[in-house]
Structures are given as C-alpha cells and as structure tokens.
User: Which sequence fits this backbone?
C-alpha cells in the first residue's frame, strides 16, 4: 500500500462497535488506542476483525495544541 499520508500508525484491532451505518474501530498502536469512524461497508470490505492487524492513517493539514489555564 502506497499513500501520500505520512502518519501511519500500525497496530491491532481491539474492538469494533457497529451502528446502523457506521462502525467505530479501535486500534491498539502499542498501548494507545486510536478510534476511527468508518462505514459498515468499509469494515466488511477491509475484512476488519478483532485481533487482526490494521493501520490508522492520519491525514491532516493542521494539528491544534491546547493547555489548561
């Protein structure tokens, strides 16, 4: 797989919560959990399942940083 995105976090699917149209896919990337909202069709097409390897691909033009006062 070749992508233009540079933020590719590889890990393992630990949970899939399926809704009416979309699913929340949780990926453990070494102790941290990244959650992605994808269509149910994408879950099926990618053959996502708990325990399988997957990658969270993050493409963003801006990252905001905040601190508590």
Assistant:
């Amino acid at each position: 797989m070749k992508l233009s995105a540079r933020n590719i976090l590889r890990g393992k699917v630990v949970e899939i919560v399926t809704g009416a149209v979309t699913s929340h896919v949780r990926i453990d990337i070494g102790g941290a959990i990244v959650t992605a909202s994808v269509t149910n069709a994408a879950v099926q097409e990618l053959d996502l399942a708990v325990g399988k390897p997957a990658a969270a691909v993050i493409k963003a033009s801006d990252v905001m940083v905040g601190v508590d006062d």
User: Anything to note?
Assistant: The two ends are 43 Å apart (CA to CA). The domain at 7-58 is CATH 2.40.50.100 (OB fold (Dihydrolipoamide Acetyltransferase, E2P)).
